[in-house]
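Problem: given the chain below (92 residues), write out its structure.
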Amino acid sequence: MLCRILIWAFIGVNLVLLYQILGPGKALQQYREIRQTRGELHSELKEVKSENVRLSQRIRLLKNSTVYKGKVVRTRMGFVEQGEVLYIPFDP
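Solution.
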């Protein structure tokens, strides 16, 4: 008799545990969502790292290269060197 009660108790506990793992909004579903979010964050991290490398290279060029500085200033500010002609497009 005690053996049957223990077996039914173990079966009940196992059913409760299975529901906790597999039930809606439970551990397995949360685990899958966390893995998906982790993957998205990992790819975003790769993008940010590559952007960081690109910006670091640009900073290094701006600190050390006068030619690059001149190019940036002319492009962004519309400055021209002596002898150059600046053409501004006109859209009616």
